[in-house]
Amino acid sequence: MDxxxxxxxxxxxxxxxxxxxxxxxxxxxxxxxxxxPTPKRKDVYKQFIKADKNNKKIDWNFLNECWNDDHxxxxxxxxxxxxxxxxxxxxxxxxxxxxxxxxxxxxDTIDGLDRILGNIAFVxxxxxxxxxxxxxxxxxxxxxxxxxxxxxxxxKTNTELLEQILVNNFGSKEFFINKSIxxxxxxxxxxxxxxxxxxxDKYKDCMDKLSIKEAxxxx
Length: 219
What we know:
Elements: H1 3-13, H2 17-26, H3 38-55, H4 60-67, H5 72-84, H6 94-101, H7 107-118, H8 126-134, H9 140-148, H10 159-168, H11 175-189, H12 193-203, H13 209-215
């Protein structure tokens, strides 16, 4: 049996309608849910991911089937799958993943995909220029990916690239952009507070108040 069909069957067998209503409401009723809590959801498909990891091959047809499903748990499955298969991802895969970035958009999937895309830079530096391009995209969700793609890199953060990307997004009125600017700076401030302090001081007249508030939390 097709693994997408198998997983769908398992999701349906484990659904919780009360939780589904609450989860949908939390996401402004933009998506449908089976209502599975995260541990149970991951337990449903962990063996399927493990099998593909052992085969060292990404099943893009399977991922596309999952992403196109109306239930949000399937988009989370795709993110968990790609995270598990990170070492097998290449630069060419970015354009397959961008299809996911551009559809069913909301902060949960965007924030799940940002570092998966960003980590490809460790094997192919072309990601750096691509993220710089994305930082000027008309779609603010694509820009958010660029802003946050270096989260949790600590001392491996490319600060020159981070600065360029953030400057490209100054002047935005979009909450999700200004919040992500602040988050990226706040995250890096745990590693290099002086750099972030100098950045905020240098650009404070150009930055949104929300960005400054988030960036300054630990400095």
